[in-house]
């Protein structure tokens, strides 16, 4: 397999806090050959697998066989591999359990009709009006992209605080478990993460094909100071990939997924990424619905190589090199057919079923997916499912200030008004909502999700959940506890 020995590509984003361009965002998705990293990564790889060859080799062999079967299955199912449920059925135990099992296996799902169709269509109309009214104030979007640098429109505020959306998020996050009963995470109290929206009006960029990738960092997944803090993937690196549980939350609470400060990277713990559809149309996303298998494969891939470029005989690489296939500091994790051949992406990367207004598409943060800004497609609000944790509460306190000032959220700018939103963000936009509009959209629950109202600690189901609420209240409302 060819190895590029040229200099490590450096993103402009990694050297400054300038707003990322579409070109910058795609840079990490243009390399078909693995790229050597600094020597410390070979040392890191050696530490991860030292003395484990006798367990990793048979584990890899078992994985390849099982992965081949999974590819055959999802390829035969196509879009039907994506489990769906109507929002009205999420409280029906039997239906809900079948859906949860499908989501547990596939890592991606659709909850249909979370908000009424006419409500979703009204939100779409309002978003387009907000864009038109402020067309002279906002940055120009690249012609091929439908991703709008918009965070605080009334449509987004109403969607995030809608009672059905919050209920759907609680339902979905209930799939996650924790092996540590004292883990400070509360899935019954979702919080808002202000992301952008896609209008579905972009034009396909035929010169830059969409690449499959995974968000939430890249090299961090192997690094001790990244996902290694609490051993998120320990079972995989110990040769026990079958025992790995992608839905275990306690090992993700102390993760640093953005060690290299990639602009626009998510710094909080999302249990799901998500899109809420506002209009009808095909989804611009494709997904590889083999969550456990694909995760184990791309994490173990850097430790194995073929005897020659065309060989199907792969062996353990010793001593390890510095390559982490598809991973570069400050970029998303790229997945492609050249360096990850066993995934058979031409068969396993499937289309997401068409979305209708009010549908909620959710996917696991480790899921391989690709997004093509082609037209026409459904207009969506980027709407992740975010539990209440210490790290997330700290982020929410900063995001609250951004909301009040009309600036992009902390992950999207450096200093008020700079970053992906440019200028002063939405500070001077006509029709930008405030606290009153949040209250009207979601009531007390919506205000709490935005960090604008303390949680009622008596609503906690357990003592540890009560501790999480008290911790979050202490961070967001220190005056309640005389914390100055």
TrEMBL record:
Matches recorded under InterPro entries: Gig2-like, IPNS-like_sf
Cross-referenced SUPFAM superfamilies: Clavaminate synthase-like (SSF51197)
Residues forming coiled coils: none
Chain segments annotated as transmembrane: none
Source superkingdom: Eukaryota
Pfam families named in the record: Gig2-like
Official protein name in the record: DUF1479-domain-containing protein
The species this protein was found in: Triangularia verruculosa
